[in-house]
Amino acid sequence: MTPELPDGVERRPFDERERLATRGDPVYGEPTDGDWRVWDAGRSKLGAMLSVGMDTGLDGGETVLYLGAASGTTVSHVADFAGPTYAVEFAPRPTRDLLPVAEARENLFPLLKDARKPETYAHVVEPVDVLVQDVATRGQAEVANRNRQFLREDGRLLAVVKARSEDVTADPEDVFDEFLDALSGYEVLETATLDPYHEDHLAVVARPTR
Amino acid sequence: MSDTEDAWFAGLAPDDIEEATARVRDGTGDTPREWPTLAVEAGYATDTDDYYQRLHEATLAATRGAVREAETADDRQLVHAVRSMDDTERVANELAERLSEWAGTRFEDAGTGVDAARPLAERDPTGPAEARIVSLARRVVDLTDERDDLRAFVERTAPDVAPNLSAMAGPVLAARLVALAGGLEPLAKKPSGTVQVLGAEDALFAHLRGRASSPKHGVIYVHDYVRNTDPDERGSAARALAGKLSIAARVDHYSGDLRPELQSDLDDRIATIRARTGDPAPGAGGPEGTPEPGGDDA
Q1: Where is composition skewed (Basic and acidic residues) in this entry (chain A) (predicted)?
Q2: pLDDT in tens, A68-108
Q3: pLDDT digit string (tens) for B122-176?
Q4: How far apart (Å, rounded) are the C-alpha atoms in residues B79 and B250?
Q5: Residues B134, B168: one domain?
Q6: CB contact, 8 Å: B83 with chain A?
Q7: Could you give the 3-state DSSP secondary structure of residue A24?
Q8: A:6-65 residues touching chain B, CB 8 A cutoff
Q9: Residue B186 phi, psi (nearest 5)
Q10: pTM for the complete prediction?
Q11: Is the CB of B190 inside 8 Å of chain A's CB atoms?
């Protein structure tokens, strides 16, 4: 059975096709219908996770820490259905585009910080229900491990592992296995590849163990 | 109160936006805590809604300031300038090709290339088609002039941003290396083997996938020490040059003082490499370490 979508996310018809949508200010030229705007699974890995039917545990209204927010394509949808949403991004250029997205959403807090250094934002970010991780850097498991401190006991890690960020030459399967081995303090609940939306990406749902 | 010691709002007057912004940006904390409720308890906010409103304002201001500072840094400006220089040159060449195709149908003496655009731009057109040709020629001339102005800007700016790197590589190649790395700091952090093949990414990935031999050089090919070294020794020359360029970039990023001995070390090393094939010693035929101008890099 496909898990239910979080409150605030719906499958709605756009051009006779059922597509994920949230309600909020349009951000990247996506099709809109009244207040609703398409959440393009081809451009958003979290959108793809919901599209392929993973059990993300998202209900809507959660407190979220989003690592690797980039220009805000995905995090804008998250802020549409979630509660307080902290968006961490390391690169200045995409963060420039994230700013107007955050301006239009009072529950979205942009932070130009390095996700490998949680101590640089632990004075701002509160404990969260959901840790979303989509960082294109080496050592993606280490990023998840270091940021585990932000997760509440019953929280969820929703991570997307990009094989090419670790090693362009390695077999993606090996990279995914290494990521899961290196993940520490988490119990993995579900994994899935994001084909056909995103090649060489593994999506992981995990919860913290204490 | 020890719970809130690390908080960005600790001891802050609720109306002190400036300090709040600075704290968000530069503060640190050991452990995340329930900041919204703690802020209300500490009297910083009247309720959690009020807290989130203050947080929104402070994070937006802090991040806007940090982005602006990062993007207006001199090395970022240099990166934009050298990329614009290459773009204007590429577009000018494309338009010049189109122009000569068209102009050749109306003017017998129309030449080819961007240089041919200048006399065309001065002509008195007769008829609407010629008016378009002459106007197009003016755009090519303007673009070429802009390319030259951008180049002059790069040549002026690069030595300020990266003095040692610019002295050794020439300002334009220095700017290209900074651009390919994404800034002076990332360039300073790259191993010299990476600097050696910056700009040859396609060849490098083909090699890593096992389909080709490893590239010997990327954009540093335009440097006299690589291009004018015998092909048999070019790999060694590229390795030696990249090694010194990396050191130069590190000195420029971390200390900024001038180290002329880097250049003489490199000169000695290249002389040794070239001696293997009986090439002339470096510096014999022109200014040392200065690549020839031109956009002929990869």
Answers
A1: 8-22
A2: 999 999 999 999 999 999 999 999 999 999 999 999 999 99
A3: 999 999 999 999 999 999 999 999 999 999 999 999 999 999 999 999 999 999 9
A4: 17
A5: no
A6: no
A7: coil
A8: none
A9: -60, -35
A10: 0.78
A11: no
Which chain B residue has the Cα nearest residue A95?
B67
φ, ψ at A122 (rounded to 5°):
-65, -20
More confident residue, A94 or A210: A94
CB contact under 8 A, A112 and B7: no
- Shortest distance between the Cα of A143 and any Cα of chain B, in A, equals 16
Mean pLDDT of B41-62: 96
Looking at the structure, tell me whether residues B97 and B150 fall in a common domain: yes
A171 in contact with B, Cβ within 8 Å:
no
Q: Between A92, A103, A126, which is nearest B35 by CB?
A: A126
Compute φ and ψ for B29, nearest 5 degrees.
Answer: -150, 150
CB B200 within 8 A of CB B213: no
Give the nearest partner residue to A126 out of B34, B56, B63, using CB atoms: B34
B71 and A92 within 8 Å at the Cβ level: the answer is yes
Distance from CA of A85 to the nearest CA of B (A): 10
B221/B265 same-domain check = yes
Print the domain residue range for B281: 162-298
Are residue B209 and residue B107 in the same domain, yes or no? Answer: no
Residues B46 and B117 occupy one common structural domain: no
State how far residue B269 is from chain A, nearest Cα, in angstroms.
Answer: 34
> Residue B295 — very low, low, confident or very high, per pLDDT cuts 50/70/90?
very low
ipTM computed for the complex: 0.94
Is A90 assigned a ligand-binding role in the annotation?
Answer: yes
Q: Are residues B180 and B291 in the same domain?
A: yes
Peptide bond into A196 cis (omega under 30): yes
Which positions in chain A touch B56 (Cβ < 8 Å)?
102, 106-109
Close Cβ partners of A148 (under 8 Å, ≥ 6 residues apart): A131, A157, A185, A186, A208
Are A206 and A151 within 8 A, CB to CB?
no
